[in-house]
Amino acid sequence: MEANTAKIAEQKSPSSLNILLRELVRDKLALVSLIFLILITAFVFGISLFLNQAEIVTVDLFAINEPPSDQFILGTDYGGRDVFGQLIIGTRNSLAIGFLVTVISGVFGIAFGVVSGYFGGHIDNFMMRIIDFFMVLPFLMIIIVFVTMTPSYDIFTFAVIMAAFNWMGIARLIRSKALQEKELDYAQASKTLGSSNFSIIFKQVLPNITSLIIVTMTLNLAQNIGIESGLSFLGFGFPEDTPSLGTLLAYATNPQTLEFRWWIWVPAAVLILLLMLSVRNVGEALRRAADARQRRG
């Protein structure tokens, strides 16, 4: 009898993983998008281990602007460099920067926002003035200035520069939700029972704003990949010897390349579009799964 009761309870309260899998299976587009993201990430990070970046970015004057062939799958650029190799390494770099910026800015923004919203009062006013100061700064211009001032930088350094000026939006969203959550009965009851602020924040408030965090972080991932690609397109991202999707797309600024040498920039443009759409589709499925978990308690 007890075993049957346990089985019924388990069926009525599926785990978060089961809810997530159910949402993904139900949403075929999100499932395809997730599979695409996993495959493209595994492919570019895996195959890049066997590629020699120094060799790929070396100029070859005897192979300039060659169309796709058996030797060069996606042809070569105006420097005779293999476009396929640049696409693989560039996708890896763009994904790595997107993930790093999302994690760094997300962790700091969530912590800053939930502390500001939960404690309120003078603490909230002080912390919000800090956010206001950073938000009035021209985001892209500040990043361009710091990138220009830095003599040499790698992926992590570039991600830190971007994240340092890209956490305020997350903090404001989390702060507004934390202001609402702290006034609810469960938070007030926990205070009455003597629970510490640390326990209430991390064991009750944060779990209850999971859906907002998931949606925000997912959309920020797509946004960060787009920002890095845009900066590289403008010439303020990575130099040509460190490919990214933006550096390949920047070749389209040449009218001859734009019209007659599609193999140089079209694959990068299509890949950027697919990555953005896939991340967005997966984010929507994660949001629905998080909302369903909260409804079930």
Automatic annotation (TrEMBL):
All copies of domain ABC transmembrane type-1, residue ranges: 91-283
Record's keyword terms, sorted: Cell membrane, Membrane, Transmembrane, Transmembrane helix, Transport
Membrane topology, record value: Multi-pass membrane protein
Gene3D superfamilies the record matches: MetI-like
Transmembrane portions of the chain: 29-51, 95-118, 130-149, 155-174, 205-227, 262-279
Keyword Membrane assigned: yes
Name the record gives this protein: Oligopeptide transport system permease protein OppC
Species this protein is from: Oceanobacillus oncorhynchi
Gene of this entry: oppC
